[in-house]
Write a structure and sequence with these properties.
Elements: H1 17-39, H2 44-58, H3 71-101, E1 112-117, E2 120-126, H4 143-153, E3 159-165, H5 181-199, E4 207-213, H6 224-230, E5 232-238
Parallel strand pairs: 3-4
Antiparallel strand pairs: 1-2, 2-5, 3-5
Helix pairs in contact: 2-3, 3-4, 4-5
Length: 251
Amino acid sequence: MGAPADNCPPCEKGAPRWVTTFGDLMSLLLCFFVLLLSFSEMDRAKYKQVAGSMEKAFGVQRRTRVMESPKGIKMIARDFDQEVIATRLKEEIGRELEEAFKNDLYDVRDQLDVGLEQDNLVIRMMGESTFDSGSADIRKPTQPLLKKIGQIIAKANKDIIIAGHTDNVPIHRGRGTYTSNLRLSIARAAAVAELLLASSEIDPARLSTMGFGEYRPIADNATAAGRQKNRRVEIIVGKIPQTLPANAPLP
């Protein structure tokens, strides 16, 4: 074979040009998948671990002995814990109620609503599933369901509020025991509270009752369907604000 030609162009130094284009493509793909990851659902358990690690890392910034950690990070962990607890309560009660519905409680399935509101678990008994019109006596078909709910929420060791509500139809004087919707809502809340205390291990110190009458509707009272939704009893599981420490003497 002959010697190479003297007019052969010199080879360029460094990587070929296609490597630069390939590197740009890989960088764009990496950014794309990072963006997809940022839109994905957050893992609650990992978030809790990260929040706890941050609290331990930044909780104490000086050698002076203090009684509590900085409130900012502590508030994040506490609020997240309340949301997780409420979610777990909702899931557990949902499973228990599904088992109850398989037996003798089909008639109240459409009258029961379980949800989360401001990190509190709210169990809402709507319509006439719990009480007859103008009465504060709990209907017998609903009593097993309320007892089951009491046994479940007793395990949570949280504060419980029983709130009674009515529609805006006035109670005619001389008909029935109660002279106003407000009195009726208070009596209904008390009846549910007494049943829960008698059928479960709920700490009485953690339970309170409230009656709102017709003044906090969740639907339009102008329709029959709206009035039926407004006639309800709510079982709220969460944290009751306290102005006095536990067992503190009254002024």
